[in-house]
């Protein structure tokens, strides 16, 4: 009976010892290194169980395993016994479980964790966080894109956990967040020691089209291209290079955004302070074309001082032409100062003012009546434009094309490129107009025909046509028309049919119209004039003599 009780107690103690000493699979247990053989560590995990682990599982990335017999280590028991009767254990899995516990706590407390980048994968890198492998996206490596991550490999450094999922085994970390935090602290410290107007030294870190970033010792400031020099700077690389140390002035500090604006030209004398003294109004200077736009060209008078030559002030003769067809960039030109606005830092310049007005020159060398020869440049509905000396044009109006007929009928006889001769009839310098006449080259047949004929003259004309309203007559080849009412003083004699073609009759000139090139003629006016003359010669209406007596006497006297 007593023996049976002892056996039961022994069995209970044995079972208890099994429960206490035998670890369960899938847990982390403590073990002791028994020996190191063939790159493996033989580890006793208790209950007479031994297992083997490759030494590399005990080493940090890029390091050798620091392990010797007798060391106690924690391992992960994957299987109590395999086919060879050994326990299947893993140091790496033990470290991973331990690491996940530690990392979850750090993630919850928003603490930094230490790790080392040990591999490159698509889109980023792998990081060992003391047993757990995390993903480091390429965008989270640094505040700026990193072309070569070699110097960062295997280096222990802090990381910030952005996201983790233990069930899926995913961890995402960021090195950039640590750098930005440190950078923000450093920036705040540096900015606190800066003030606007202060002159400091900096190193050019980066150059863009609009300026350069200058390192002021932990904080970057922007040196805009317009603040590099008083003169026009097309690209910052013209005067700066990366790595160069420059002296700059702090122009503005934004305490909230930590943005710093810098300037270099502020450390130099402002050339605009002496512009009015150096470049008085109407003075002529030589400058260099720096920029060409649709509305004009900018000319540098001296470094830092530019003026605008508006397109309207570029040429006397080239109108509606792009400035680029008159001047070119870097060309040296002579300009006249037209206006200065120091407050707005503007200088208005003139290019054409340095040359004489071609219309003034033409007026001096070609007075009215001068014969000129030129090429037909353009044909319009109202006349011809003819090229003249001085690169200017003169216009021949339709009315100045021919003496006979209408200008509209003969303008079709002209073509572009035809060389024509004409006389200068008018030069208007203010309106920049020159009037020419082609018909004047042949003289005025009307003036030649009428000779000394003037209003009141008695001339003899020949009847060429009989019409109901009057008669058509010619005088020296010039046609005129006598209306029915002017055919006689006597209404009964105002009949066109009493005349025949070829009849020669004396008429009085009532009007000479050079514009319409017509003579006003009247038989009636001649008769009235003759009657008046007879009255004045032979008596007055108060002498008692009748008109018939006077005319009779006059006629007898003529005989």
Automatic annotation (TrEMBL):
Belongs to the bacterial ribosomal protein bS1 family. Keywords: Repeat, Ribonucleoprotein, Ribosomal protein, RNA-binding. GO terms for cellular component: cytosolic small ribosomal subunit. Residues 26-92, 110-176, 197-265, 282-352, 369-439, 456-524 form the S1 motif domain. InterPro entries: NA-bd_OB-fold, Ribos_protein_bS1-like, Ribosomal_bS1, Ribosomal_protein_S1-like, S1_domain. GO terms for molecular function: mRNA binding; structural constituent of ribosome. It comes from the Bacteria. Transmembrane segments: none annotated. GO terms for biological process: translation. Pfam families: S1. It comes from Limimaricola cinnabarinus. This is 30S ribosomal protein S1. Binds mRNA; thus facilitating recognition of the initiation point. It is needed to translate mRNA with a short Shine-Dalgarno (SD) purine-rich sequence. PROSITE patterns: S1. NCBIfam families: PRK06299.1-2, PRK06299.1-5, rpsA. SMART domains: S1.
